[in-house]
User: Fold this.
Amino acid sequence: MPVENAEIADMFDEMADLLEIEDANPFRVRAYRNAARTLRRMPESMASLVAKNADLSALPTIGDDLEGKIEEIVATGRMPALENLKRTIPPGLVALSSLPGLGPKRVKLLYDQMGIHDLKDLTRAVESNEILDIPGFGPKLRDRLRDALGKPPPIADKRFLIANVEARAETLVAYLEAVPGVDEVVVAGSFRRRRETVGDLDILVVAKDGKAVSDRFTGFEDVVEILAAGSTKASVVLRSGLQVDLRVVPRQSYGAALLYFTGSKAHNITLRNMAVDRHWKLNEYGLFSGNAQIAGLTEQDIYEKFGLAMIPPELREDRGEIAAARRGLLPELIRRDDIRGDLHAHTDWSDGSASITDMGAAALALGYDYLAITDHSQHLTVANGLDPGRLARQIEKIDRINATYQGFILLKASEVDILKDGSLDLPDDILKQLDIVVAAIHSAFDLPREDQTRRMLKAIENPLVNIIAHPSGRLIGKRAPYAIDMERVIAAAAANGCALEINSQPERLDLNDVHIKAAKAAGVKLVLSTDAHDPGSLDLMRYGIDQARRGWLEAGDVVNTRPLADMMRRLKR
DNA sequence: GCCGTTTTCGGCCCGACTGTTTTCAGTCG
Assistant:
């Protein structure tokens, strides 16, 4: 099986971790991390680029040396430089550096001076107070380490679904807005960029008296731990484990601070380098030429100084948005109210909780022109999937209900299972009676990559199928995508005129942003759907919209922004 | 290790907070 970009990225990150402990040139460490980040967001696999004999060193952050290492990893699955380094550094040291207050410098000090190379050694040194003999280690740090060692190890990279932190974010904003002297409160960071998950919340406040805001912030009812509390910056952990960072800035810095705290880091670094090129300086307080602030009140002012159009937060990932902004080629991103209907919804005929009529009423209330009723097919017995007989009766029922509407229609459809061999779970004659066929994988998630890919391609090549639902099958934080070659899936969808779904369920968001952008580039028709199982869930569409925007989609890229007749014509194969 | 209106060497984004110092290093974002 070809090596995945993420695996190469993991090797580079591990290389960076080890080099850091070895006290290597920090810029060399950064080079590995930058390259890892490039690989993670590349939709095209290194394996296929190498097979095409492409010039990898033309990619940003990849030079001659890393090109050679990538080619070696693709060819052999191994990275000798990493293996050699691993032999010289005890494996436990990297784990130590994940403890709070311990970075590579202190970990190296622990190892060099006391031979501490794992959590057990460290615990002993902390309990015996021997750790205090090491320069730079005092009682505060010892206590902090003792606390951390007594708790279960933090889940690496714990992230929260964006939908799960929205309510908390709104409460916090309202709480801070009520503080006297506060002019403005906004949530920045990955939350504002609408990433599918957030690692923490970054809250920006405009106020004169930072200490007052900071004090109020750390006194929020849900705070279980205060990590830092200064006059412009504070950091807490909430009961849920969510970390929240606060920054307070004066009005004239609002735009610069918002830009800075919205990120992404890669986007910021590129902008800062552009400032350096012009002999300016960009930080969270403004854009400066010498000591003079030349922009900073709004984000737009700053982009303008660089000759760039205003870049929407969702695009700020250093995936080409800066070049596009310079050339006036930023997309006109799709908006929630561009959507004319939903093409994936369930009713109580299968595993939904509401009647067909109630789902229709909810879609009408959203101002939609159409709603596809896509109950499950027979193979999905746990979801009470419909056999041909029940589906035939549902078709009749929908016809009767449609007779009562004006200017709105329920589309007769099915979310039909793609069986293990790639065939569909319902016979052709019943599928031909439907307006739309949505096909999806709900079983045999563990097929080998080649088999899973072939299974999916067979469904895509089936002329009866209009849409592939949740193409990767992932559940964020719970279930990895099934092993599948998404490059081939996208290419086949484009070649066969089969649409791919962007599923709006907050834990699916499937396709993801990277694949959305790749699908658009390949000319694939895209559909935004909610997969609603109750009337209220039709409103989850906004999460799908967020990801579509992150994937650079315009209204014209999405089939269900079209009126009924146009939409049906586009889905036709 | 990457990169180039500072082009093949010498730079590499920038600042706040903490704990340990006695002017600053390390960590973090």
